[in-house]
């Protein structure tokens, strides 16, 4: 893995056959789990070091956050170089619809998430905003992470505009409407009304926010609208923002 980080940027003179073979290995890796997934990614990079998805997959297996970030960043930069800046300008707005963009998009999203995790909000927000400009349809769910970053950075107006841009019938949208009203204006009558509406969308969120119920040890990967899993996913990602609300438990209880 360290060799992959230390290796110079790959030259673009690989034969078409070699690149296609590497791509097939990446496809197989994306559908595999465990050691086989990483073995296939490593083999693909040996054939074609210019494949961004290879670095993204290798980053999954390291326990070092810093090493993972370096791999994501390298994959992102290689993916951008492979596409070329002219390609970005010509295809902005429907990037995800072009299969060849997805390795770059995956690496860039993961790198932005790392920046967000370490608190480099300015860089993370810039990265997320670029991904949404490239793909306004938001197939990757970037808007969810950008909303949290905006709130962490106290850019509440932008967070509110983002909710209007990507409305949905979900607990996340309903409770975030309440949250942004409180963070912007305090515990207003409007916040009360929004909260009552959110509670109808998913009643299980409240007990988790107040601590009456504990989050499960393992946050579920799947959920349905209105169920306990949806509540767990929402609270696990947004609890730190709700904790900013003065006297949160008393207000929610009332």
UniProtKB/TrEMBL annotation:
The name this protein goes by in its record: Uncharacterized protein
Keywords: TPR repeat
Annotated stretches, region: Disordered: 1-23
Gene3D superfamilies recorded: Tetratricopeptide repeat domain
Pfam families linked: TPR_19
Species this chain originates from: Cytobacillus solani
Extent of the TPR repeats: 105-138
């Amino acid at each position: 893995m360290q060799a992959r980080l230390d290796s110079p940027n790959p030259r673009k003179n690989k034969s078409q056959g070699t690149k296609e073979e590497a791509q097939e290995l990446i496809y197989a890796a994306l559908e595999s789990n465990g050691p086989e997934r990483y073995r296939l990614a490593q083999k693909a990079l040996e054939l074609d070091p210019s494949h961004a998805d290879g670095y993204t997959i290798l980053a999954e297996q390291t326990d070092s956050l810093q090493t993972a970030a370096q791999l994501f960043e390298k994959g992102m930069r290689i993916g951008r170089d492979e596409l070329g800046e002219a390609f970005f300008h010509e295809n902005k707005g429907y990037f995800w619809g072009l299969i060849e963009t997805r390795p770059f998009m995956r690496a860039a999203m993961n790198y932005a998430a790392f920046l967000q995790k370490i608190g480099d909000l300015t860089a993370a927000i810039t990265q997320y905003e670029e991904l949404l400009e490239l793909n306004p349809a938001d197939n990757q769910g970037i808007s969810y992470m950008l909303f949290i970053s905006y709130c962490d950075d106290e850019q509440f107006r932008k967070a509110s505009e983002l909710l209007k841009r990507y409305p949905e019938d979900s607990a996340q949208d309903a409770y975030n409407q309440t949250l942004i009203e409180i963070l912007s204006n305090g515990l207003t009558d409007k916040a009360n009304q929004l909260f009552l509406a959110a509670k109808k969308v998913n009643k299980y969120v409240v007990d988790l926010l107040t601590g009456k119920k504990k989050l499960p040890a393992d946050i579920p990967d799947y959920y349905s609208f209105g169920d306990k899993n949806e509540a767990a996913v929402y609270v696990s990602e947004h609890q730190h923002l709700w904790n900013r609300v003065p006297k949160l438990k008393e207000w929610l209880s009332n």
